[in-house]
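Lecture notes, continued. The same structure-token format from the folding unit now serves as the input rather than the output. Read the line below as a description of shape only.
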């Protein structure tokens, strides 16, 4: 069994391969769903001097324990559920809840309120059904700001939403008119 530090480090390597740079590791991802055989991922990881000893069950452990359920293993294949920068993988359009959340930071706010939410270096904008995931995302780069997205309004402007599982929704972009700053205190009072 991997200790916690190795598990996190392995999970980061897995996201690098499955979301961002498969070719750097000699891995070919399925263009539709971004998956590859678990064995191919294992082989790629083992080419790294630090990870020559890694076993399939270590990958399983990283997948099972991922706090945000970043990976899915199905029929002997593994994929990242969201977060891709490399391949624009295919998701089916879905019917989102009326409100979704996006976590960002204070510095990005003026630009988001001017231009709307854009995918930046990823293939999709990342949204969530609850504020917990948005809090984790937005707290990574400074002072947290949570935006509320009016999905009905966005749909009227032609935005399609895709479900990535585990409360995570994706969109190509979201117009600023459909975004408002979520005020926790007002919400709860
Ligand atoms: C911001 C991680 C200026 C956006 C996270 C975000 C999430 C704009 C940053 C998942 C903008 C992009 C995805 C605009 C958006 N002007 N800034 N018009 N539109 N932005 O990392 O959503 O732990 O690519 O608000 O926790 O933060 O890796 O996207 O701040 O779940 O699994 O541009 O990745 O999950 O940053 O994160 P990112 P994200 P993992």
């Amino acid at each position: 069994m991997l200790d916690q530090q190795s598990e996190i480090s392995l999970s980061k390597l897995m996201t690098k391969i499955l979301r961002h740079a498969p070719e750097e590791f000699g891995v070919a991802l399925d263009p539709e769903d971004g998956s590859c055989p678990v064995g191919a991922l294992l082989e790629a990881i083992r080419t790294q001097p630090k990870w020559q000893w890694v076993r399939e069950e270590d990958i399983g452990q990283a997948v099972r324990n991922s706090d945000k359920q970043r990976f899915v293993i199905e029929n002997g294949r593994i994929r990242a559920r969201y977060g891709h920068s490399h391949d624009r993988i295919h998701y089916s359009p879905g019917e989102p809840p009326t409100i979704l959340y996006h976590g960002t930071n204070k510095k990005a706010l003026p630009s988001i309120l001017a231009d709307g939410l854009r995918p930046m270096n990823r293939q999709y904008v990342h949204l969530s059904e609850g504020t917990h995931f948005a809090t984790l995302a937005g707290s990574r780069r400074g002072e947290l700001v949570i935006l509320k997205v009016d999905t009905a309004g966005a749909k009227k402007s032609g935005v399609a939403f895709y479900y990535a599982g585990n409360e995570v929704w994706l969109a190509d972009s979201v117009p600023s008119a459909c975004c408002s700053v979520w005020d926790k205190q007002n919400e709860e009072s």
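Point for the exam: The domain at 4-80 is CATH 1.10.10.970 (Arc Repressor Mutant, subunit A).
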